[in-house]
Amino acid sequence: MDKVKVIYTVGYGHSGSSLINAILGGANDSIAVSELIKLGHRIRKLGNSKILSNRGKCQGCRENIYNCKLWSQVLKEVPKDNIYFQNENFLDNLKISLNILFGFPKINFNNLDDTKLYNSIIKNSNKIYDKNINTVVDSSKDPRRLKYLQKNPNIDLYVIYLTRDLRGVSNSMEKRGKNFGRTYIIWHIWNILSYITYKKHNKNKKIMISYDKFTQNPDKYLKRIKDKFNIDLNMEDYLDNANKQEIHYIGGNSMQKKDITEIKYDQSWKKRMPKWKQFILNMICYIPNKIWVYNKKL
Ligand SMILES: [Zn+2]
After folding, report:
1. How many whole angstroms from 167 Cα to the centroid of ligand 1?
2. Do 101 and 108 contact (CB within 8 A), yes or no?
3. Are the CB atoms for 243 and 63 separated by under 8 Å?
4. Euclidean distance between CA atoms 155 and 153, whole angstroms
5. Is residue 273 classed as helix, strand or coil in its secondary structure?
6. Which domain range does residue 149 map to?
7. By Cβ atoms counted within 10 A, which residue in 105, 139, 189, 258 is the most buried?
8. What DSSP line would sit under 138-165, residue for residue?
9. How far is the CA of 16 from the centre of ligand 1 (A)?
10. How far away, in angstroms, is 75 Cα from ligand 1 center?
C-alpha cells in the first residue's frame, strides 16, 4: 500500500497557522482540513446528535459534520475508534509530554492507525474538488499528536514548525481574556515540546518558520515549502486559489471563511499596549523571541 502524504503544522496557537493552512489548501494536489485533532473530540462529545452548537459544525460549509458533504462520507468510512482522541485527562497528557522530553514512561504509539482517516479524506475530497489531491494539510499544532504520526510507518509525514513573536501571541491571547503570565509559561512549554518533536524528524521533510518573517516575505517561504515538500502550489495565484477554494474545515475559527486580501506583517500589539507594558514585554520576551522567532537560521 502507498503511504499517505500529510503536511502537519506544529506550534503554539495564534501563530498564523490558519493563513498557511489556507494557502497550502489551495495547491492543486492538496486539501486543507485545519485542526483535524478536534474531529475525535467532536464526534465523541456530540454523538450522532443533529442539534449541534457552532463547534460541532464543519467550519467551512457550516453544516453539521454528519451532513457536510466531505465529513459525512469520511465518517461513514472510518470507524470512530480509528480517529485520534486528545485525552483530557491531566495524567495521560503529562505522560506523553514526559515521553517526548525524556523518552519515558513508555507509551504505545502504535495503537492507533490514522492512515484510514487520511486516506478517506483524500478519496472523498477527490469526489468534491476538481483537483488531483494526494496530500492532506493538517494544522492541528499539537506536538503530542505529531509524535503519534511520526510513529506511523504508513504516513509520509512533512512537518512545518511555526513560531510567532511572543508579544504578538500574548496580545492575541489577551484579546480572548487569557492573561499574560499564563500565555508566557504555556508558550514556552509548548515550544519546547514542539521543538523536540520537530528536531527528531527527517531533515528533508521539515521546515521551521517564523510567522513574523513569513509575513514580510511570504513568497520566499512558500517557495521553500513548495520545493521541499514537493507540492503543486501556483506561486503566481496562491491567494486567489486559496480564496476560491471550497472549504470544509474541522476546528479553527470562523475568520477562516473570510477572503485573504493581503499578507501583512502584524505589529498591532504595539498600538494596543501601553508603553510601560511594552517595555516589560520587550525585556522578558527578548531571549525567547531571539531563539524561536528572530533566529538567523529561520
Ligand atoms: Zn463542510
Report:
1. 34
2. no
3. no
4. 6
5. coil
6. 4-292
7. 139
8. EEEE-HHHHHHHHT-TTEEEEEEEEE--
9. 22
10. 12
CATH number at residue 19: 3.40.50.300
What cell does 204 get?
528533508
State in Å: Cα 37 to ligand 1 middle: 16
Q: How many domains does the chain have?
A: 1
C-alpha cell at 58: 464543519
166 located within any domain: yes
Output 174-183 pairs: Cβ under 8 A, ≥24 positions apart: 180/281
C-alpha cell at 185: 509559561
Q: Confirm whether 116 is domain-assigned.
A: yes
pLDDT along the chain (298 residues), means of 10: 93 93 96 92 67 69 90 92 78 90 87 90 96 97 94 96 95 89 94 96 97 96 98 96 92 68 88 88 95 92
What residues flank ion ligand 1 with Cβ within 5 A? Answer: 58, 60-61, 68, 248
Radius of gyration of the chain (CA): 19
How many A from CA of 161 to the centre of ligand 1? 27
Q: How far is the CA of 248 from the centre of ligand 1 (A)?
A: 4
Q: What is the pLDDT, as a whole number, of residue 46?
A: 66
Ligand 1: centre distance to CA 59 (Å): 7
122 CA → ligand 1 middle, Å: 14
Determine how many CB atoms are found less than 10 A away from the CB of residue 38.
19
Å from CA of 185 to ligand 1 middle: 35
Residue positions counted in the chain: 298
Q: Is the pTM of this model over 0.85?
A: yes
In a domain, 298, yes or no: no
C-alpha to C-alpha distance for 42 and 55, rounded to whole angstroms: 8
* 297 assigned to some structural domain: no
184 Cβ neighbours under 8 A, 6+ residues apart: 166, 170, 284
Quote the ligand 1 centre to 66 CA distance (angstroms).
9
